[in-house]
Design a protein that fits this description.
Blueprint: H1 3-7, H2 11-22, E1 24-25, H3 27-33, H4 38-50, E2 54-58, E3 66-70, H5 72-94
Antiparallel strand pairs: 1-3, 2-3
Helix pairs in contact: 2-5
């Protein structure tokens, strides 16, 4: 799987953009707020981690959830995805 092949996974860009907006999220937050199946979200997380786009941090206080955050690299990719979305929305309105 190439890097571009990985981004074709439906939930990947959605997860990145969500994390860019929210800063951090639990798996449950992602499941409840991203328009993708639970399976698609959970399958995407190891891919994002493998490419160094996200990291999981364990909370030290109750309820001790694992929170998912963007790495610096992930933030840069997410910012580009937001810019692409803006271009698509703008051009859709112009046509």
């Amino acid at each position: 799987m190439t890097e571009l092949d990985a981004l074709e996974q439906t939930a990947l860009p959605r997860i990145l953009v969500y994390l860019l907006k929210k800063g951090k999220a639990s798996r449950t937050d992602l499941k409840n707020n991203i328009d993708a199946s639970q399976q698609a979200i959970y399958n995407s997380l190891p891919i994002l981690k493998r490419y160094g786009l996200i990291e999981e941090i364990s909370e030290t206080v109750f309820p001790r959830r694992k929170l998912i955050t963007l790495t610096d690299k992930g933030q840069r990719v997410a910012e580009h995805l937001v810019e692409i979305e803006k271009i698509l929305v703008k051009e859709k309105g112009e046509s």
